[in-house]
Every structure is written in C-alpha cells, then in structure tokens.
Amino acid sequence: MKTISKFPDGFLWGGATAANQIEGAYLEDGKGLTTVDLLPTGKERFKIMEGYPSTLEPHKDVYYPSHQAIDFYHNYKEDIALFAEMGFKSFRLSISWARIFPNGDDREPNEAGLQFYDNVFDELLKYNIEPVVTIAHFDVPVHLIKEYGSWKNRKLVDFYEKYTRTIFERYKDKVTYWMTFNEINMLLHLPFTGAGIVFEEGEDKNQVLYQAAHHQLVASALAVKACHEIIPNAQIGCMLAAGKVYPYTSNPDDVLKAMEKDRESFFFIDVQSRGKYPGYAKRFFRDNDLTIKMEDGDEEILRNNTVDYIGFSYYASRCISTDPEILKNQTAGNVFGSVKNPYLKTSEWGWTIDPKGIRITANQLYDRYQKPLFVVENGLGAVDQFASDGSIQDDYRIDYLRQHFEQLGEAIEDGVEIIGYTSWGPIDLVSASTGEMKKRYGYIYVDRDNEGKGSLQRKRKKSFDWYKKVIASNGSDL
Ligand code: BG6
Is residue 2 part of a domain? Predict the structure, then answer.
C-alpha cells in the first residue's frame, strides 16, 4: 500500500554546504584570503573564532583545512552527478565573497570567480537541481579586516551591497533562492567566524557586537531590496542557528531565562522578518549602556525590506537553568553550549540529539513569524568506519535522520509551512567548529583525514541509497 506523504509536492529535498568547507583552491583563479583560511585545527582555532587571532597571515608549516578542503572546486561535476543520482531537488551552497571581490573593496569583480559559480549553477540546473545560495557563510575577505575592521565599520554595508548586486545581476536567470547571512546569530558567540571581528584591548564587547549586528542587519535588508529589484521572482531569506531553549525546571526563573536565551537569537530575525528592533532589545541596550549608531533612513530600510522566508539550522535543542550547580553540567552544541538535558542522548561530539525538538522549533518559528520555513541544515556528525567488505554501514545516521523527518512531517501536519530540507554536508566536508574531517555528515564518504591526507576519492555510504529512497517517495518511505 502506498503511504501518502506529509510533505508537500515540490518539497525541496537536498543537501547543504559552504564554500570554505568544500571548495579548497583557496587562492586559485584570483580568490583572495578569507577569515576561514586562517583557521587551523586544534585549540588555536577556537581562540581565533572568538575574535583573538594572533596574526592575519597564514603561518608557514601549519595545516589549514580550508585550503584544499574536499576540492569541490575541481570535482564539482562528479559531486553534483552523485547528488543528482540521489534525486536532489535542491543544493545549498555559498558563494565565497573573496572569489568575486578578492579584497572586498575592489572596483571590479573577478571574472574567473564569477565564472566558477556559473559553471556550478549550470551543472545543477542540468539535473533540475535548484541552487539555494548563501551570500555570506563565515568568510569575510581578510583585507576588509585589515583595512576597515570588518563589520565593526559601516563601510562594510556598502561593500556587501556591491557584492550582492553583482551576484544578483550575474545569476538572476539561474538562482531563485537566496539567504543573506548564514547563522546570523553566530556573531554574538564566535565573532570572528560570524563577522570577521578582532577585539582590541579595552573594547566593550557587547557594544562592538551589537554595532556590527546593526551593520549586518542593514546590509541584509539592502540585499533583500536589491534582490527584489533585480530578480522579481526570487525568494530571499534570513538564516538562524535555531534550537529551542528549554527551561531545566518549571521554576519561573528558569522559564524566564530560557525565554531570554531564545530572544538572544530571535533578536536578529525579529529585525529581518518584522522590520524593526524589538522592545526587549531596546531594553537590553538601555540596561547595558549600549548605544547603537544608526544612520538616517536605517529604520526605513529595515522596515521596508523584510525577508520572504525563514531559513534555519537545527542540530539540537538547548537547555538552561538558573541554578549554579545544574549549570555546571554542560554539554557542547552547535554554536552554544547547553545544560545537559537528562532526557536526551548526545552525539560523539556532545551535541544533544532531540528529534522532537525540530518539531517544537519549527512550530515556535512559524507561530512567531508566519512565514514559510526552510530547514537548511540538520544532520549527525559521526565517525564512520569501513566494514570488512569495504562498505560504510551508517545506520546511526539513518536513524537520526529518519526520526527528524518523522518529526518534520508532524510539524507539517501541525500546519507549519515548510519549503524544503537540505541536510548538512551530504558529502563529507571540513567541520566548521573543529576543522576535523573525522566529524562526518555525508551520504558520500570522502577519503581525507584530519591532517589532510587521503586520496579525496568519493564513496557511497549506506545512507546514500536510503536518502535516495526518501526523496523518491517524497518522505513517505522512511
Ligand atoms: C553550522 C554551520 O553551524 O553547523 C556549518 O552553518 C557547520 O558551517 C555546521 O559546519 C555543523 O557544525 P560542525 O562544527 O559540526 O561542522
């Protein structure tokens, strides 16, 4: 008997990546150096991501995983053919700003960089795969940090606007789905990763971060404006690192704390989606003596250019307490740590596994914004091992995804409008938080290790055929 799918017709099943985690070719064909090209593996990586790099030049003899990554730059045809074989309806990728404007403030764009993405989009369209493009995914051209202090500086708004107008003009006939900034709320937690922020001595951190946030929010609204002008049928969204924050207990103090934690992230998309600063943010600025410098017309720009949809990543729910003893029991997570939730298991990297959380999070976002949602990241980072016959039996990944799809189906039944789902890293790629290759998300294995050794050969895992079946049945055969 054929089961009826909960997923709407035309649901955009696919996979998601970011330029710096797959492309490699970090200085090829005129590309400039970006923030991520300065991130080694190990402890030093975190220090830099938090905004404290010791230098803005790569060291000799240090291994930087983004420099070669999985070499998608030279393998994109083969990789896209594999996505097509799985039946992908969409593929999320980011454009590297520094391929288009190597320094960020160049007068003319780099034609070789533009051509590369033309080739990639053509290849996707050949298989009827819809490109979903993130305009900025954790990579600011390093020159913009050296010369202007990156997003601390209002000038970045102009450079970003020029970059966005250039790519909208160039790809207007090829790309319909866009997103302005990947996980825009990352800025508060890993400021170098999110916005190329380097702290100087004596700076008030919150002042720096919220001023940079204002610049990104205005830049995002101007990108929405440009996109709507240049590509009338386009859909342009924001992108949030999501995951409902649960109170550890029903103590109102915990509940209030959880609400505040949620709002720390919602702040960004409240502005992007509702077009104005929320009251709780204004209060936060007052209480903390923060003054956000705005230019005349900023409020109007924000008000008139809100996003069409809400893109979000979901890996885990989070949990918070006001009890100092309970707070000690932390576990890791995407962007944020969390109090360990006693009801839930965690991944090998300590990320909480909570399939119901995706339903709760999707409902919460839809209740709040009443705009279509797009799940643009989700998945399980795990160590994969070869069986004696050389295959990779990644049933743990299948289990994780199956449970999340079931809950996504429930969210759709709840009435939540969801455009599509792109799982993170359909092909193994470099981990953003650790720089490891060992933390694998893919349906496709890539022969490369944490030190950059390996043939880069691709190999289908067991989950490859499973995901193919899921897509073919539009989510009814899990
Ligand atoms: C998100 C990012 O934070 O999570 C991705 O948008 C990242 O770039 C993904 O790769 C998974 O995180 P990690 O650290 O496992 O790579």
Answer: no
What total number of domains does the chain contain?
A: 1
The catalytic residue among 23, 130, 183, 377 is 377
**How far apart are the CA of 350 and the centre of ligand 1, in A?**
14
CATH number for the domain that contains residue 299: 3.20.20.80
Q: Is 57 a catalytic residue?
A: no
In a domain, 132, yes or no: yes
Closest Cα to atom 2, ligand 1: which residue?
Answer: 432
Q: What is the pTM of this model?
A: 0.97
CA of 179 to the centre of ligand 1 (A): 16
Q: Give the confidence band of 334 by pLDDT, cuts at 50, 70, 90.
A: confident
Q: In which domain, by residue range, is 130 found? A: 12-472
For the cut 80, the answer to whether the pLDDT of residue 196 exceeds it is: yes
The interface predicted TM-score (ipTM) is: 0.99
Q: Which residues line ligand 1 (CB under 6 A)?
A: 18, 21, 182-183, 241, 313, 334-335, 377, 381, 424, 431-434, 439
Q: How much is the pLDDT for 222?
A: 98
Ligand 1: which atom is nearest the Cα of residue 379?
A: 11
Residue 243 alpha carbon to ligand 1 centre in Å: 14
Q: What does the CA dihedral 399, 423, 22, 310 come to, rounded to 10 degrees?
A: -150
